[in-house]
Amino acid sequence: MGDTEWTAARILAELTPGMRMRFLFDTAKAATWMPSSELEALFAEPSYEARMAAFCILDFQARKRLGDLELQDTYLRHHDRIDDWGMVDRAAPRVIGATLTGGPYDLLHELAASPDPYRRRTAMTAPLWFVKYSDDTDVEAGIAIAEVLHADPDPLVYKPVGIYLAYAGDRLPERLTEFLDQHDKTMPARRTASRSASESQRMAAEHAVPRTRAIGMTARIAAMSGRLGSLTRCTLRHGTATWGGPAGVRRWGFLRIARSATARLIAQAAAMSRAIVRSSWPRSTSPKPRVSTWVPATRPIA
User: Fold this and answer.
1) Count of CB atoms within 10 A of residue 278's CB?
2) What does the pLDDT look like over 224-242, one tens digit per residue?
3) Spatial distance between the Cα atoms of 7 and 54, rounded to a whole number of angstroms
4) What pLDDT does 50 receive?
5) Which residues of the chain have pLDDT under 70?
6) Would the CA dihedral through 77, 78, 83, 84 be positive or negative?
7) Smallest Cα–Cα separation from 225: which of 195, 250, 261, 198?
8) Helix axes of 190-237 and 155-171: crossing angle, nearest 10 degrees
9) Which one of 101, 193, 194, 266 has the minimum C-beta count within 10 Å?
10) What is the domain extent for residue 87?
């Protein structure tokens, strides 16, 4: 059956209470282009699986229609159907965050001021799109939302604050350090963000020496190249000499020196390449906080 034949009734027939999220996501992906009227019917369903599928479908649609304000409007109109953090984490970055790239960011501040913790979570989760796909100005806008919500006592809110700061710290480590210096004592999520800052500082210290060595090695190879060029020119000047007699001996000696210098140059270049590879910035080996798509079993909404 084609994508256009997906209806709310067909999706409900595919869903079962407590089903694995992988199968729910596969069903939502297959129904990506279902009619908007059928999607509205899914949002109206009381079961958790149906509403989760509806937000997943929004997410899959946003992957093909990044920045679509119609999808943003659909998400916001049905925000009162959200009663689990997984629905926010699944859809907010692409459906909301991608529409706010480059600003204005008024919507994020409006959501951050809401008494509903799920709306405040949307305000903090949507900017994750900025960290991965946008510029530093947008990342700073997300940090501004974190400053508004950093002391929020609700774990639905302060946990995504810590997650966002951990990722933003990879982009702007100095900004993260400054943020923690200002707000560390009032942040429930300070452990997550502080761990990211400490990891960035540790990696910087570990890789400073190899980078310095690589720079010095580059300078030495450049100097050696100059000496090798001089030897080559000197050899060419003796190119008219015969192989016999003192001139031939001198020319043979120059060739041996040039060959030896070439071998050293190649060895130094290989060593420099290894040093540069070692000095590159690898991903942290410590567990990284990430947005999870795991969600609990069925909980009908009132």
Assistant:
1) 15
2) 656 666 655 555 555 444 4
3) 11
4) 96
5) 1-4, 189-259, 262, 270, 272-302
6) negative
7) 261
8) 10
9) 266
10) 3-199
pLDDT in tens, 30-48: 999 999 999 999 999 999 9
Is 106 domain-assigned? yes
In the chain, how many domains are there? 2
Residue type, 171: R
Q: What token pair was written down for 150?
A: 């950093």
Assess contact for 129 and 160: CB atoms under 8 A. no
Establish if 300 belongs to a structural domain. Answer: no
Which among 199, 223, 240 is the end of a domain? 199
Could you give the count of Cα atoms lying within 13 Å of 16 in the half-sphere of its Cβ?
4
Of 113, 119, 128, 132, nearest to 163 by C-alpha is: 128
Identity of the residue numbered 90: R
- What one-letter code names the amino acid at 104? P
What's residue 72's pLDDT?
97
Please give the single-letter amino acid code of residue 154.
D
